[in-house]
Amino acid sequence: MNAAPLTSSIRYETLSSQAFVETDLPNCTAPVLGLEYLGMRLRSILATFLLLIPTGCGDTSRSLTSGAPSDVTEAYKSSKTQESTPDATVVSAFFQATAAKDWDRASELSKAVLIERPDDSEALFAVAEVAFHNGDASLAIELVKRACSIESYSDDQHIRQCVLAMLDQGLLYDAIEVLETVVTIRPDHHVFRRQLIDFYAMAERPEKASPHRRVLVQQRKFDLLLLMDQVAARPRELEEDTIEVLLKRNPADLRPLLAKAKRKYDQRRDAAATRMLSRIIEHNPTFAPAYALAIGTIARSGNLESVVTFAKQTPSDVNGYAMYWAALGDWAVNQSMFAHAARCYWQGTRRDANHTECWMKLKTSLQQISDGEDLTLSKMIPIVEKRATLLNSLDQKAREFSSAEVKSQKQALAIAQTLHRLGRDWECEAWAAIALTLSKDKVRSTAGFRNSVAASLRRKTPWQSTEGHPELELDLRDFPALDITRTVDQPSSLKSLTRANSSSGSAITKTGLKLNNEAHTRGLNFYGYTSKEIDQPGFMLHHTLGCGGGTLDYDLDGWSDVYFAAAGGTPKLTDSEGNSLFRNVGGTFTETTGPSGVDDRGFGQGIAIGDCNEDGFPDILVLNFGSNVLYVNQGDGTFSDQSSRWLGKQNGDSWSSSGAIADLNGDSLADIVALRYCTGDDLTTHKCFTKRINAAPSCSPMLFPAENDLFAVGRPEGGFESLDSDVALQPEIPGRGLGLVVGALDDIEGVDIFVTNDITNNHYWSKPQRADSDQILHELAMTRGLAGDALAAAQGSMGIAIGDFDQDGLFDLFVTNFADESNVLHRHRGDLFWVDDTNRFDLSSTSFRLVAFGTQMIDLDNDGQLEIVVSNGHVQILSPSGTRADYAQPFQVYKLNQQGKCQSIGSMMESEYIQSDHVGRALWTIDADRNGKPDVLVTHQTEPVALLINKSSDQHDWVEIQLVGTASSRDAIGAVVQLQYRDRTWKQPLVSGNGFQCSNERLLHFGLGDMPASDCVVTVTWPNGDVERFRLPDINRRWILIQRSANAFELN
C-alpha cells in the first residue's frame, strides 16, 4: 500500500493567498521584497545583534537580563526567599544587593548562592548578571549557559540572553553551539533554527546551514530568502564590519575570519585570502573549512608543489568538503592525470550533489579519457553533463528572477521546474508555492504544477531523489585514487600556504612601451556617443554599451582605413548620428563617408568587416539596435546598401551587438553571425527607478529576456539564409551576446565560434566530431571549459582577446568582465579544453574593481611575447545603491615579467592618454602608419575616438602576413599560420569578430625579437585543410600569401 500523501497529514493552504502554513516567519502572503532588501536583511542579522550589544562588560547601566519577562529580584522574592533559613537569608541578602545595584556586595554573596542553589536556573542567571556587571564575562556566560541546560533549553528568553551574552564577547561559535543544542532538543523551534542558519551564513559555513534549511522547508517554515540561499551559486555579500567586531571582541578565535577570506577568494585576491587563512590555521590547526578553502586558493594559483605540500598537512575531515576534492582534481588535471581527476571530482559530487563546478569538471575529465569505444564511459558522460547543465541553468534562472525584482511568477515557476528535473521536489514545491503569490507574468499552469508536486510528497520523500538520477549513483571507486602526498616534502603547511603566492625573478620597473593618442593630428576626428547625457545619472540600458568600429582597406591601396558606428538617437529608428568612414592616405585620414555612401543612421553598436560576395573587396556589416545594414563594396571607392537583398527577412529589429563574417560550413562562401543582446516589448521604455537616489539607473540586462543569436549561411546566388529554425543552434541557456571570435580556435578541423554573454553562460560553437552528423555546429562551452570561470560561474563578459599567450602552440582566450568580477584568462590545455589560469598569471587583482570592455593580445614591442591591452569604463555614474561609480577608468597594458606573471605597466608608460582615465568601450588594431608597430583604436562614451600610435622605443624585428583564399573563402577565416624563425616558432589564427563590437586589421603580425638574420618559413593550414609552406625572402616586411601559389608577394 502506498503511503498517505503529505497533504493528508500536514495542513496546506492550496490556491489561496495563504501559501504557507502556521509560520511566524515572513511568508509569501507578505509583500515580495526585492533582492536588494533580501541581501541587506541577511547581512544585517548578525550586525543588528552586535550593534544592540556594544561591548560593555562592567558597565552598570546595562543588564544581562534586560528585557526579561519579569524582574529577577521580584521573581525570587515571590518564589525562593519565603523560607526562614540561614541559606535563605543569604539568598535574600544577595537579591537585595542586586536590586540596589550593589554589585560588590552581590559578588561577595554569589558563591554562597551558587552553593545553595546549584540547579536553580533563576539563581544562576542572577549570579551571571552580577558577574557581567563586575567584568567577569566568562563566568557570566558559563552560568547562563548552565542555566539554559538545566532548563533543557525550554525558556526562549533565557536562550536569547545566552546568545546575546556570547555575541557580546565575540563568541560566535559558542552561540552557534547553543542554538544547535536548542534545535536538537526542540526540533520544531523554527525561529531559533532560522537564527542558526543566519549565523552559519555569516560565518561562511554553507555546509552547516544547508541541513537546517532542509528542515525548515520540510516543516513548511520557509520564506523567499531561505529558498534563494539554497539555489544561489553566487558569492554572498559580506558585512565586513560585523566580522571585524567579532574578531575585536574575541581575538583568540579567528574562525569568523573565514568569511572575509572567502570574500577575498571570490574576488580572486588570493594573496589576501592566503594571509587570512594562514592566521586561522595557526590559531585553529584542526579547522577543516579553512584548509579546504586554502587548498582551493593554492590550486588556483598554479603552484603545484605547494598543493602537494599543503595536502599532507590537512586534517582528515577536510575530505568532507567538495572544494577540497575540486582542488585535488584541478591539481591532477594540471598533471594530465585525467582518470585521477575524475575520481576527485566524483568525490566532490558525493559531498555536495549540487556542486556545479565538480559536475562540470567531472564531465570534462571523463571526456579526456574516453576513446569513444568504452560503453560505460560513453553512458556516464551524458548523464553527468545533464546534471551540470541543469545546475547551471538553475543558477541562471535564479539570477534572472533576482534581477527582475523577485516578482515574476513565470521565472519562479521556471526555478521550480528546474528543481523538479534535478530531483529536488521539496524545494520545487516550495518555489511553486512562492510563485502562486506573485502577480507579474502569471502562468496558468502554476497552481496545477504545484498541486501535482505537493500530492507526490510523502514524509519519507528524500530531500534529493536518486530515482531517475543515475548520475547520483555513479561509482568511480575503480578509477585510480590520487596519492598527492607522494612527491615534495616541505616543513609545514603554513609555509607552503604563504609560498603559494610568491615567486622568484624580476618584476618590471621601467618600460620603453609608449602609446600616443594622435587621432586629432592624423585627421581621425569622430565621436560616436549613445546619448548626449551619458555622463548624468539615470539613463537606459541601451545607452550603456557604446559604439564600435572596424579596420578595412576598402580601396586596396595597402593602407588600412577605418569605419565607425554611431548612435545617439532612438533604437529601431534612423534618427541617430551618422556612421563615418575615414580613408588612410599615407598615415593621415580623410573622411569619405558621403562619397562612399555608408552614412547609416541606425542606432549603431558593432561593426563586422568581411568579403560577403567573395569579390576580393571588404564589405561592411553594421550591427544596430534595429535593422542591421550591409554595405557591399563596389570596388570603385563606393558601397551599395544591399541589406534587403542579402539580409532579407531575418533582418528584423533585434538588438544586435557584435558580428562576424566567415565561412562557417566549409562551402567557401561567406556566412554571418550577429549576436543579439536583450529583447522585450518594454526594453527601451522600462525604467528601474529607485527611491534611494531618486533616479533611474540603468536596468540590469537580466530584467529582459535573452534572444538567440543569428546564424546565416551564404547562398551561391547571393544573400544569406537564416538558420534560426535549426534546433541545434538554440542553446540550452540563451545568451545575451556581446563579444565573439570566429576562427580555428581548437586543435581539430573546422571553424569555431566563441561568444561572450552578459551575466549568462558563454557559448562555444564547434563542428560536430561525429562524421554522420548533419549539424553545422554544436554548442560546447561547458565541455570546453569556457562557459564561465574556474568555479563554473557565468559573468558579465564582454571583450575577447585571442593569441598563443604562453607560446605552447595553442590559442588562449582572454575575456573581460564586469566590476567585482575578474577578467579571465582561459589557457588552452589541448585535448579540446581550456582552464581558467587567471590567478596563475596574476591577472585578477588588477581588474576586479574595473568594468572592462575591449581587449586585444598584441606584441607592442615586437619581442615575440604578446601583451594584453584593455579598455575600461563603467556603464553608469551611479549604482542602484546610490554609490558613485568610477565612471572613467584606466586603460591597461599587461606585460609578462620574468616571474611569469602579467604586470600592469600603464603607470610606467610615458603616455598622456594612458595616464588619464577614460570611459572606454571597443578596442581594435591597426597599423596606421605601416611601420610594423601595431597601433590601437579605442572608442569612448564621453570623448572622441583615440588612435594610439605605437611610439615604443623598445622595438625588434617583425613580419606581417595577409592571407588570400582561393579554394577556401577569400577572407580565409579559419586559417592557422605557423612562423619559424631560427629556433623559435610562433602560431596565430586568422579570426573574424575580434571581440567586442569591432573588427581588427586583417593581418597577422609576428614580433621576432632580436636574433641574427635567418630564413623565415611560414606554414599555412588553410580552412579547407590545405597545408602550404612559404619562404619569406626578408623580414620587417608585409607579405601576401595566396592559397595554392608557390611564392610570397611583398605588399608595397
From TrEMBL:
Domain ASPIC/UnbV residues, every copy: 972-1039
Residue ranges of coiled coil: none
Keywords annotated in UniProt: Signal
Superkingdom, natural source: Bacteria
Pfam families, sorted: FG-GAP_3 (PF13517), UnbV_ASPIC (PF07593)
InterPro entries per record: Crtac1 (IPR027039), FG-GAP (IPR013517), Integrin_alpha_N (IPR028994), TPR-like_helical_dom_sf (IPR011990), UnbV_ASPIC (IPR011519)
Protein name: Tetratricopeptide (TPR) repeat protein
Native species: Aporhodopirellula rubra
